[in-house]
Amino acid sequence: MKEFFEVIESLFVDLLFAPFDVLRALELENWTGANIINWLFMAIGFVAFFYWMMQLKKFNDNNEEDRDPKAHSFLN
């Protein structure tokens, strides 16, 4: 049974967490390079947020939403 858990440890430490070790070593040399992934995710989030807001404005301008207080069952 001990070998089973050692295999799981080896899988995670040697294979799955290896990219994090690379990023940790890169941060000591180049902060921007290590954090480019974070900036990329933030940019994707901002683009998705603004796209969603534009879609909501489009539906709001077309009056496609039923704004009656009884339109949704959870508002009864």
List the helices and strands and how they pair.
Elements: H1 2-16, H2 18-29, H3 31-61
Helix pairs in contact: 2-3
Describe the protein in words.
Helices cover 76% and strands 0% of the residues. The chain contains three helices and no strands. It has helices at residues 2-16, 18-29, 31-61. The protein is elongated.
The number of helical runs is 3
Shape: elongated
Largest sheet: none
Rg over C-alpha atoms, rounded to the nearest angstrom: 24 Å
Q: Give the low-confidence spans.
A: none
Helix vs. strand class: mainly alpha
Strand content: under 5%
Beta strands, count: 0
The H-and-E topology, N to C, reads as: HHH
Helix content: over 70%
Give average pLDDT, whole number. 89
Distance between the termini: 57 Å
In short:
The protein contains three helices and no strands. The mean pLDDT is 89.
List keywords for this structure.
76 residues, 3 helices
